[in-house]
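WARN retry 2 of 3 for item q-0093 after timeout on previous attempt; input resubmitted unchanged.
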Amino acid sequence: MADDKSDLPPEIIEIILSKLSVKSLLQFKSVSKSWNTMITDPVFVENHIRRSKYSNSTNLVLCLTYQTSPFQFSMVKLEDKKFQTLPVEIEAPFGCESVLCFCEGMILLTRGTYRRLVLWNPSTRTAEKLWHRSRCSFAAFGLCRDPNTDDFKVVVADWDYYSVYSCKKQSWITMNEEYEIEGSGEGLMDSREAGVCVDGASYWVWKSRKITYYDPRDDKFKMLQKPEKLEDCDRIYLVNLRSSLCVYGYFCAATKVQIWTKENGIDDHSWKELMTVQCDRLQYLKPLFFVENKIVLQVDYKRLISYSPSEKRFENFEGDTQLLLLDMAPVPYMESFYFPIEKPKPKRKRKRKLTVVDQH
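OK item q-0093 returned
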């Protein structure tokens, strides 16, 4: 590493570094000891995550491509009406082939057995295996970050029980725990439904069209009342839009989808209507994320389109559409230097002292 001498004060250096990409930060860690300390400081990492979370400048998503072996993620840039595949391919770690859920730049992956789970940060290419005792073929999965202890947790929600992995303790703190809420045992709306991570909690929908969530503060599952106007809808689903929990309901007879957003905070259960999307032929319409002031929708399981709430108009994307044939919805890409499982530092080999034997 170079000397720590610099003409700029540390505060200015930190501001400049916080605006850089993870790739650049990984390179600049070796500039000097002070830069390495600054970049790896938890406060700096958290500020970098916050900047990435609320930035709409990149509009990048990851698409898992099954045509390659091992499986790879392609990076796609969505901008205005353009769908551009970038010359960046990221290999899925440990031969993983399925995305289970994602949260704040972290992605939970698995292979076909659903016993070996992999927590992965695609920005730094850091990954860690997590083994579950049983096969979780029909379970749903969630990621969340305890706002009180900053413990990142992996949640496996099965029909009759749930399990929780603590990244701080690097162990399963709850294994096959029974639910203590009404409606448990009836299963989720969709098998292997991805938990939606917002405000430190993970949310799902039961088959009874009730919303349940895992609260990491006390490791309990709880119920969340949905908006009253969605009581008569045919089906409801959840999505994270601009870091807010949103629920959208299908009204097939009226060919419309209503989207509601919850006020921020785990304990705030109030809702307000975000928008209503009219669609003449309503087969399958899934809100994914915002790009600028338009919302990206997955339609008929294969196509991506955008919708302008102000103009109430649908638009098709231009450009490379090869990746749109995938059944898996694109995963929003968020730059993050964070990894919740602390890697053990390699032990330095101690040099053996040579003992000189006096032969006289």
